[in-house]
Write a structure and sequence with these properties.
The protein has 2 domains: 119 residues, no CATH class; 110 residues, no CATH class. The strands form 3 sheets. It has a 3-stranded parallel beta sheet with strand order 1-2-9, with helices on one face. It has a 3-stranded antiparallel beta sheet with strand order 3-8-4, covered by helices on one side. The longest helix is centred in the middle third of the chain and has 21 residues. It is 34% helix and 13% strand. The protein has 245 residues and is of the alpha/beta class. The N terminus is likely disordered.
């Protein structure tokens, strides 16, 4: 199929306005659809990200595309970016509401070298050592890709690693064991901090008993990152539409 090359620059160079208010009763685990044309949830990220950037307006008729990407969250927008950069494919991103309306602007704003909730020791138990080592290499590659992506995006990056804070003394031996595994097996320089170091250098957590520090971790402003991804995606030629049915 032939990609649509025309861009809705006639959208006034503005973001598509919502046609419906945010529904505070919306629950993605129970509601069958996210709706259409809804306003953002009133999160800190959205409230401090500035005005949403221009998009390509709503879909008003049938179109032919090379690739259709459903959803304009972090995954959808970066997919469009890489398809354009690596393969010259001008994808069309279809969003039911507003750019990154869902989880991408309702999260903790942390980039980590992780894959789900399992620790590296649990990777080994579940998948075996060889697979765990390859998975570690993959998540580290992902972190480097993320760093490259945000070089030119004003998303308030705060590097410095990631802390796993223990709030009971009895939890510290498990963190110490995990940190040793990370250093010895994965060659990943995890360190153990005592409570005073955590409070003095990182966060004044009165209940902290200590922490494990992983070297890779970046805090970001999720709303600014989403808007930056949209600007970069549209600059790379993909079409980003909103209020798609």
């Amino acid at each position: 199929m032939e990609a649509v090359a025309t861009r809705n620059v006639l959208n006034g160079g503005n973001a598509t306005a919502p046609s419906r208010p945010y529904d505070p009763a919306y629950d993605p685990l129970h509601t069958p659809t996210p709706g259409q044309g809804r306003e953002y949830a009133p999160t800190y990220w959205i409230g401090t990200a500035g005005e949403p950037p221009a998009d390509d307006g709503p879909i008003t008729h049938d179109i032919d595309v090379d690739v259709a990407i459903i959803g304009s969250g972090f995954t959808g927008l970066t997919c469009a970016i890489f398809l354009a950069q690596e393969y010259g494919i001008k994808a069309t991103v279809l969003e039911a509401n507003r750019v990154s309306w869902g989880c991408s602007t309702r999260n903790g704003g942390q980039a980590q070298c992780a894959s789900g909730r399992l620790k590296r020791s649990q990777w080994i138990q579940r998948y075996g050592l060889d697979t765990a080592l390859r998975l570690h290499e993959e998540v580290c590659d992902g972190m480097q890709t993320f760093k490259n992506l945000i070089k030119d995006i004003d998303c308030d990056p705060q590097p410095g690693g990631h802390l796993y804070i223990a709030h009971r003394d009895k939890a510290m031996p498990a963190l110490e064991k995990e940190a040793k595994l990370l250093r010895d097996v994965f060659k990943y320089d995890a360190r153990i901090f005592d409570a005073d170091t955590v409070r003095r250098e990182y966060v004044d957590d009165k209940e902290a008993a200590g922490a494990m520090h992983e070297p890779e971790g970046i805090g970001i402003h999720a709303g600014k990152l989403a808007f930056g991804y949209l600007r970069r995606a549209r600059h790379s030629a993909p079409r980003c539409t909103h209020r798609a049915p």
